[in-house]
Specification:
single chain, 77 residues, alpha+beta, two-stranded antiparallel ribbon, two-stranded antiparallel sheet, 2 helices
């Protein structure tokens, strides 16, 4: 990675692998998109995601509404 790529890395959408309680960065970037609202979420602010669907959510309210909407389709054990 050259110096210019590092400077603009935060402007690019990251690709993440969501795991229970954590995530792994597959492609560096500064944010991900909420699967419901499309809102950009800074990685430092990312707190809510669905491991089975590999989706990020901007807030607890959005995550809960998505969970309710999916019902049994949302995966899990």
């Amino acid at each position: 990675m050259n110096h210019h790529e590092h400077d603009f890395q935060h402007l690019r959408e990251a690709k993440l692998k969501f795991m229970p309680g954590d995530f792994r960065v597959l492609l560096p970037g500064g944010f991900v998109k909420c699967a419901v609202s499309g809102e950009s979420i800074g990685l430092d602010d990312l707190k809510y995601w669905n491991v089975d669907l590999q989706e990020a959510y901007a807030s607890a309210e959005i995550a809960f509404k998505r969970y309710i909407t999916l019902g049994d389709e949302g995966g899990g054990e």
